[in-house]
Specification:
apoptosis, 239 residues, CIDE-N_dom, single chain, CIDEC protein, 8 strands, Ubiquitin-like (UB roll)
Amino acid sequence: MDYAKSLSQRLAAPVSKCVSASASMTQQLLAGPALAPRPFRVCNGERSLRKGVMAPSLAELLRQAQLALALPAPIALVLDEDGTAVETEAFFRTLEEGTALMALSKGQTWTAPKTRGYQASLSRKPPRRIDVACVTFDLYKTHPKDLGCLNVKATLYGNYTLSYDLRCCGARRLVKEALRWGLFTMQATGHVLLGTSCYIQQLLDATEEEQKEEEKSLLPLQNLLPCSLPALPYKKVLQ
């Protein structure tokens, strides 16, 4: 009989362990995934002490705030900007990260801050802005003798970027480039003037040739006419 009892106890131990393990796993599956802790800022009733805490739930936030501020239990949490009480888990989940809260001990009440604008800015995120255009100018040198280089970069709507790099070389090289461009301009101007003068000369030559041809065509007609007519006879009229 003793042997049968000891054998039954040995067989029942692993079975109980399996049942307890399966029960714990079932509870974890039913509970769902654990919530990630979120950051919050808490202060005491006088706003003389501020702390940052991380908590995934309201109960954990109450515990962390009490430990951080060294307040006697129990405590209550309210919004620092307007005194709204945070009492339910559903309302706690609607709070944004970094919300400023006030921990109140028994007998303490919420009071408005002296500088409301500063306190309100702690719990409100800055409005999201949309950048239309951003232009930056970068002035730099690649060599001590250089006059300077300028880089212009423009960003449109935060997605499209345009950039232009203007490099100014040394003074000697800059003068050489200016003389080269001046020489090229003078050569081009000389070619234009030379071509224009040749064209005008051709027009003048063509006009003179036409005048000579007209004069030659008039000479045969002048040869046909007598150079001088004979004088008419003179008769005296008797009175």
